[in-house]
Design goal:
This protein has 100 residues and is an all-alpha fold. It contains 2 helices and no strands. Among the domains are: 12-46; 47-78. The protein has helices spanning 2-42, 49-81.
Amino acid sequence: MQSENRFFDDLSRLINGAAGTVAGMGREFENQARERARTWIGDLDFVSRDEFEAVKAMAAAAREQVVALEARIAALEAAAGGAQAAPAKKAAPRRKPTDD
């Protein structure tokens, strides 16, 4: 009877060792896959979230500044030309020369 218990004990140790090895291989594979993904994404020239938010904030500030400057120009034109100053028109888009 005792030999059967020893056989099963050895078998359970062998299976536990194999399971641990398989789990370790799985963790190693996952770590390698993550590292390769980081390298691949890093080579794609993506911007970080912080850089994106900084540029977005700068663009919003620039838009506010443009609105303030347009109001200032309108006030200066009104002061210089009286009430007859017309609002500025948008420039027509430039046409590219063609070889006609």
